[in-house]
Specification:
CATH class of the largest domain: Alpha Beta
Domain Histidine kinase: 292-525
CATH superfamily of the largest domain: Histidine kinase-like ATPase, C-terminal domain
Domain PAS: 147-211
Distance between the termini: 136 Å
Radius of gyration: 50 Å
Catalytic activity: ATP + protein L-histidine = ADP + protein N-phospho-L-histidine
Number of strands: 23
Domain PAC: 220-272
CATH architecture of the largest domain: 2-Layer Sandwich
Structural class: alpha/beta
Strand order of the largest sheet: 12-14-16-18-17-15
Helix content: 40-55%
Region (Disordered): 413-452
CATH topology of the largest domain: Heat Shock Protein 90
């Protein structure tokens, strides 16, 4: 026998239950000749056998049937009691078939006659092999049980829901993990095998989609809404895989169900914020566009108004053309009103803010509201007696109330209820998303007021608005009314007034159920007199004698406006120098070149602003009377180059009387 063969001989440890030492040696020697490397223990009684089984379990037990005190049957019972799975082979000189069969039924693995020991080695090889197979099977079963236990713990402790649904003959849940209780409020045992209960918890609109995904084993993520036994709606995301039988037929699906409610709400909030940002940027763009259009249109209206007045001054009182010119002037005034609304929307119209009480505004307009809306609409007022004061132009907030009321009246052609209410919103709560379903012009946290908000709400029971209409409601010229029934500037004006005051406009509406528009204004503790109107008509001096030969430098880049302004001044006795740009004014009429008594300049011009031009002139003549003309508001251009002190402002389009009175006050301040 070679060394390699010796190394490859299987080693076995044998327990010999045999009272004959010679017989035991013969058995061991036969096993060695059969290729085994054998170690052995020989015992003759139960106690010795038990000791070996306990301390040195063998690979094989060979037991002589005929033992005086410890036979094969007793040894077999002892081995079974130990719980060890060890091959047990009985050898005997002579025994009947019935006895051998009884031993095999009792658990012996084989029975050999001593005169036929040629079967020993094959029998041992077979039994060791089968014992090894049984051991491997037990190990696999134990591993499977451990795996199943790990899966059970994982399924029971997972926050995601694991499930399996049988599809034939109908969709029915076979297994669902305990996490389903967090979604539905039901334990797994209440849902398994009860498809009606399970599907009743799924949102009615999502139910067909869920069933369809199961029937087709669609692996794409699917979001489904659930209505649990208690609590609020839950959003889930499902992923499934199909289970097929041997013929390839889909028989079941299994997958994961995850609660994505917070994610859905976060996505909705991001989308809401994105739409709000888009709305804000669109409104800002429209505001810039509206302001630019109004500025240019004001220049044109100024020309129309100025020449209309000049022509009227030259016509006799009985001239039939006077009526035509009056109509031109009235049309120009109406057009100027539209431009003022555009400037209000773009926050470029002059304003005279005061500290006031919104309750007083509502009470003060109540009678006018009654005459405006008619008897078929009930007016209800709910006013907070402790309302915060706000700072806003009184005329502007009255215009806001009137515009909202007029819109509400149009929404209730068959009558209804109009409710005007006021309330405070504290600083922390402020204009939160929950309070404002559709906020326009929301300030950043840094811009929010320190003392809270005052809210004025106008609610009606009219036809309401769709979400799309709400999103566009404050855009200028957007209207749902028929041709000739509105300009589409009502809510745009409201937006401009409120935004200029640092506030917000919230719109809550549903088609067929009415509309509530909330005006939120920053609370204030400031008070003081309103600024003096520098354009009031309080001069009665004859226009033709105003100038008295004083020299006025008119700087205006619009030739038509410059021409009509010059005509008005010259007709009133002024000497006028004209310049089409600040550069021309400095070059031709700058300090030390020509005597001028006052500077009348446009505010916004290419290359240099009117403010910068004033600074240039005042470097050598700090007391030079100056006046600004602008199609914007009295403060809309301040951010361009600062607002020098002592500068009067004349809003375009202006009448000849307004121009002359403002210039008179500039030249002769009181």
């Amino acid at each position: 026998m070679t060394a390699r063969q010796v190394r490859m001989m299987p080693r076995i440890h044998v327990l010999m239950i045999e009272d004959s030492d010679d017989d035991a040696v013969l058995v061991i020697e036969r096993l060695r000749r059969g290729g085994f490397e054998v170690t052995s223990d020989r015992v003759e009684d139960s106690e010795a056998a038990a000791s070996v089984l306990r301390t040195r379990p063998p690979d094989l037990v060979i037991c002589d049937y005929h033992m005086p005190a410890f036979g094969a049957e007793a040894a077999l019972m002892q081995l079974r009691a130990s719980g060890l799975d060890i091959p047990f082979i009985v050898v005997s000189g002579q025994v009947g078939e019935e006895t051998a069969a009884a031993l095999m039924r009792a658990g012996a693995h084989d029975f050999l006659l001593k005169d036929r020991m040629s079967r020993l080695v094959p029998a041992v090889q077979r039994e060791l092999r089968e014992a090894d197979d049984r051991q491997r099977r037990r190990q696999a079963e134990a591993a499977l049980r451990r795996s199943e236990e790990r899966f059970r713990l994982l399924a029971e402790q997972a926050t995601d829901v694991l499930f399996r649904c049988r599809l034939c003959p109908r969709a029915e849940v076979e297994y669902v993990s305990p996490a389903i209780r967090m979604i539905t409020g039901y334990p797994p045992e209440d849902l398994c095998g009860r498809p009606d209960t399970l599907f009743s918890l799924v949102d009615e609109e999502d139910r067909p989609t869920l069933k369809g995904s199961w029937r087709t084993a669609n692996p794409e993520p699917l979001r489904v809404r659930w209505h649990p036994r208690e609590g609020v709606e839950v959003w889930t995301e499902q992923r499934v895989v199909g289970v097929h039988d041997d013929q390839g037929h889909l028989v079941a699906v299994q997958g994961i169900l995850r609660d994505v409610t917070e994610q859905v709400h976060a996505d909705e909030e991001r989308e809401r914020l994105r739409r709000q940002l888009d709305q804000t940027e669109r409104l800002e763009s429209l505001g810039r566009l509206a302001g630019g259009v109004a500025h240019d249109f004001n220049n044109l209206l100024g020309v129309i108004t100025g020449y209309a007045e000049i022509v009227l001054d030259t016509l006799p009182d009985d001239d039939p053309c006077r009526a035509d010119m009056d109509e031109i002037s009235r049309a120009a005034d109406q057009a100027a009103g539209l431009t003022r609304q555009l400037l209000t929307f773009s926050r470029q119209e002059s304003s005279k803010p005061e500290t006031l009480d919104l309750n007083a505004v509502v009470e003060g307009t109540r009678n006018l509201l009654r005459r405006t809306i008619g008897e078929d609409i009930e007016i209800v007022t709910l006013l907070d007696p402790d309302l915060h004061p706000v700072t806003i132009d009184p005329s502007k907030i009255q215009q806001v109330v009137m515009n909202l009321v007029v819109n509400s009246r149009a929404a209730m052609p068959d009558g209804g209820r109009l409710t005007l209410s006021t309330a405070n919103l504290d600083r922390d709560r402020g204009p939160s998303p929950a309070d404002r379903p559709a906020a326009h012009g929301r300030p950043s946290p840094e811009e929010r007021p320190k003392r809270g908000w005052a809210c004025l709400a106008v609610a009606d029971t009219g036809c309401g608005m769709s979400p799309e209409v709400i999103r566009r409601a404050v855009e200028p010229f957007f209207t749902t009314k028929g041709p000739g029934e509105g300009t589409g500037l009502g809510l745009a004006t409201v937006y401009g007034v409120v935004k200029a005051a640092g506030g917000e406009v919230d719109i809550e509406s549903e088609v067929g159920k009415g509309t509530t528009i909330r005006i939120l204004l920053p609370a204030t503790a400031r008070s003081g007199p309103a600024p003096v109107d520098t354009t009031r008509d309080d001069t009665t001096r004859d226009d033709a004698t105003r100038g008295q030969g004083k020299t006025i430098l008119v700087v205006e880049d619009d030739a038509a406006v410059r021409a009509v302004t010059t005509r008005i001044l010259v007709r009133s006795g002024y000497l006028v120098h004209e310049a089409g740009s600040p550069a021309e004014a400095l070059d031709r009429f700058g300090p030390g070149t020509t005597r001028i008594d006052a500077l009348l300049t446009d505010a916004i011009m290419p290359g240099m602003t009117g403010y910068q031009l004033i600074e240039q002139f005042r470097r050598t003549r700090p007391e030079l009377p100056v006046m600004l003309m602008s199609g914007y508001a009295a403060g809309a251009e301040k951010s361009v180059a600062g607002f020098p002190p002592g500068v009067a402002h004349l809003q375009k389009p202006f009448t000849a009387r307004a121009l002359l009175d403002s210039l008179e006050r500039t030249l002769h301040p009181r």
